[in-house]
Amino acid sequence: MNATPKVGLVELARAIAPLIAGEADEIERTRRLTAAVVDALIGNGLYRALLPQSLGGAEAPIEVFMQMLEEIAKADASTAWCLGQCSVCAMIAASLDHDTAQEIFNTPPGILAWGAVAHEARAVEGGYRVTARWDFASGSRQASWLGAHVRIVDGNGTPRKNADGSPELRTILFPVASATLHDVWQAIGLAGTGTDSYEVHDLFIPERFTAFRDVRSALREAGPLYKIGTGSTFSLGFAAVSLGVARATLDAAIALAREKHQSLAASAMRDNAAVQGLIGRTEGDLRAAHAYLYATAHAMWGDLSVTGEFSAAHRSAVRLAATWTIHQSAKVVDTAYHMAGATAVFRSHPFERRFRDMHAIAQQIQARDTHYEDVGKAILAES
Questions:
Q1: What whole-number distance in Å separates Cα of residue 321 and Cα of residue 364?
Q2: What is the model's pTM?
């Protein structure tokens, strides 16, 4: 059973982190989270971090969710990525009727995954029909349900429009058994995420298994968490994952420097002034990124809790902080990797996988350079 946590999510994450770290090599080798890891995540209720309390979920404040992911990422980035993806997907429960959400999230294992926005579904009597294939479904190999974000067309093929003229988008939900999964995730990093493709053919989706994602008027839950929306929650969560990877990589470099003697030199690496200075500056960079991300999340959550509004300014602040934090974390990982010298290239040491994982994270949508342009445009538009 996907239990609801009785103690803190962050403490639970720390408690199972040694198990996850011990499984990391097998996760990398098989390109899947191991059964032991999935059982630990389910058994400790971590997948239910963002599920509404009305459904037995934790409905955790955003900073708790971020801290949970950061702790898991220190042990293994793929596990943290899958947990973050599926946890945020569960936020769609706030836009479903209670019985439908119960069926999806309270029938074990109660895990939902989805991929990118793509394709269309045709409206038919009682629901929709769809034939399509989607990509980037991180966590799909643990999921019991899949989702897809599609444009809606009428029976005659005419695209439906919202009141503002934009295309009508819905999230459709269906059991994983209704889809064919394709093993396509052969990637430089995050190897264990199972970020595969999935497709359905002429699948009927009843109306009640569809929802408007991140549409305020469609929410059935009043909690502040669901006003943030999945997009910004993904950004904060995955930025926290990057901090965890950076922290673990820098800690490994510090441990190495304490023990290693440099080639052709009798002195220990820890006594080298250049190494000392590099560690000091990099530690400062990482602490600054950590403080900035969490300060942004804290300020946003405080305003949201008081006003009930997640404003355009909040969205812009989250986007900037998350993007910059991911980029800064990548710089920390690069520095630690180079500091480790030849040691870093061996799979028997904790550097090369984290290096690859970090650079896979930095290629995701949450780290796009265009986010800086969006924020800069907003700043310049202020009067």
A1: 15
A2: 0.95
Quote the pLDDT of residue 89: 98
> In which residue are the tokens 């799909």 written?
140
Q: What is the pLDDT of residue 345?
A: 84
Q: What is the 3-state secondary structure (H, E, C) of the chain?
A: CCCCCCCCHHHHHHHHHHHHHHHHHHHHHHCCCCHHHHHHHHHCCHHHCCCCHHHCCCCCCHHHHHHHHHHHHHHCHHHHHHHHHHHHHHHHHHHCCHHHHHHHHCCCCCCEEECCCCCEEEEECCEEEEEEEEEEECCCCCCCEEEEEEEEECCCCCECECCCCCECEEEEEEEHHHCEEECCCCCCCCHHHCCEEEEEEEEEEEHHHEECCCCHHHCCCCCCHHHHCHHHHHHHHHHHHHHHHHHHHHHHHHHHHHHCECCCCCCEHHHCHHHHHHHHHHHHHHHHHHHHHHHHHHHHHHHHHHHCCCCHHHHHHHHHHHHHHHHHHHHHHHHHHHHCHHHHHCCCCCCHHHHHHHHHHCCCHHHCCHHHHHHHHHHHHCC
Please give the pLDDT value at position 7.
55
Partners of 159 in beta bridges? 153
What CA–CA distances, in Å, run from 111 to 91, 102, 191?
11, 12, 20
Tell me the average confidence (pLDDT) per consecutive run of 10 residues in the chain, 383 residues long: 68 98 97 98 97 97 98 98 98 98 98 95 97 97 97 94 93 98 96 97 98 95 96 98 98 89 65 88 98 98 96 96 98 94 82 96 93 94 84
